[in-house]
Amino acid sequence: MKTVLVAFVVAGLSNLTGWANPFFPADTITDYYEVETIQMPKGLTAETDGLAVMPDGRIVAGFHRGEIMIYNPKIKTWKLFAEGIHDPLGIMAVSNSEILVMQRPELTRVKDTNGDGVADLYETVTDDFGLSGNYHEFAFGPVKDKKGNLYIGLNTASNGAGIFPEVRGKLDTLGRPGRMYSAVPYRGWIMKLTPDGKLHPYASGFRSPNSLGFDANGNLFAADNQGDWLGTSKLYHVQEGKHYGHPASLLWKEGFPHVTPIKLPVKMLDSLRTVESVAFPHSRIANSPTQPVLDETGGKFGPFAGKMLIGEMDHPYLIRLMLETVDGQIQGACAPFLAGAGLRRGNNRLAFAPDGSLWLGQTDHGWAGDEGIQRVRWKGKTPLELADMKLTPTGFALTFTQPLDAATARQVANFQFKRYYYEYHEAYGSKQFDVQPVAVTNAELSPDGKTVTLKLADLKAGYIYELELGKLRSTTQQNLMGRLVCYTLNRLQRNTQANP
């Protein structure tokens, strides 16, 4: 009885004075996640372009100047595995002695065949795509589906530099105009490599798809960076045969008229594109999203198992994705994650290890960012976070990781919405159009205290719904970690809904 009384008194003092309460969990993000900065080898320019975890838990990383190195986290040592790789912007670990590397000119198999820890086999897997010599023709991936197909992404070229006298693949100057262009095949495409070794064009319309990833149901996703024809950065559900908006790559689409794509009317180009699943409001959420990765840790990384994270170059945090299928299409929400936890900027590559820790490879690559590698571990306590956001016919259902204090959860003032959209046009980026507040007319709390169902005064497709959460707290007085979330509402909820 005395223990209960003391706890009650301490809780009251904490609420009145703000004094730290030893009976309740702490409520800053560093009490839930810890960030370790990995010491890099001396003399290495640690612009981390590729990152993967080997089956035995060692980390394999590729760097901008061509080194592939392996880090053993148990003994904290580095070893050079391979070198001479040109922009290794993606690594997939095949075994403890073999990796696939997506370098600029080709997808390469790199293997240690004699067991000395150093690669002695470099083998071309595929190079069946064009190169003009333009500095911006990066290549990303690979990722592998359940059928054994590999997928890679090919960047468009930049008008900030030209074309070399000798190119690989067919040169078509109709693809040359524009800020970002596609003068050789298949710049601006996601490509599919089948197990028989044939490379096939899979989906078009990408500007700079900095890495690929699958969700728990095998859906392929790629992020694209704000620029010409992209009013803001976006996450696409990539499906075979579809076009995703950047016109330059249409030149290489079978059966497409032999014309300069960007000279077609904007209305026509708009009708050809498949819209994004998630739009990342520029500066508000992301400037340059990077690699999407699935949390397959089974809860070892906290309460977000089965969800996806994505990296971000310009901000010192990651982004959590909350996706759902509405009216047959995947759409959903994004929110900053681990802000204030000690992450650096430039989070370019992400990989989960068997122990549930998340490894982050960082680069500036001549733009914003930092260099090196960090490791994030969950400390075992569950923070108060928005775990999921789902559309309803009249608003949104918000599910949290912990039961909420009922009094604050039912206050509509704690849920401030506004909506807007970005225009599809040739210019670089877009301002927000038709910015309007949207009133919440009712907030209903579920019996378990974890879900707040909000009724909005108006829902309209084609808008981003930005939500600022107020000072919500858990029943144990934990602070809400993140207060910003943005939902991309492409399709309205009708009667039934199937999650992806």
Automatic annotation (TrEMBL):
Residues 78-266 form the DUF7133 domain. Residues 1-20 form the signal peptide. SUPFAM superfamilies: Soluble quinoprotein glucose dehydrogenase (SSF50952). Keywords: Signal. InterPro entries: 6-blade_b-propeller_TolB-like, Cu-Rt/internalin_Ig-like, DUF7133, Quinoprot_gluc/sorb_DH_b-prop. This is PQQ-dependent sugar dehydrogenase. It comes from Larkinella insperata.
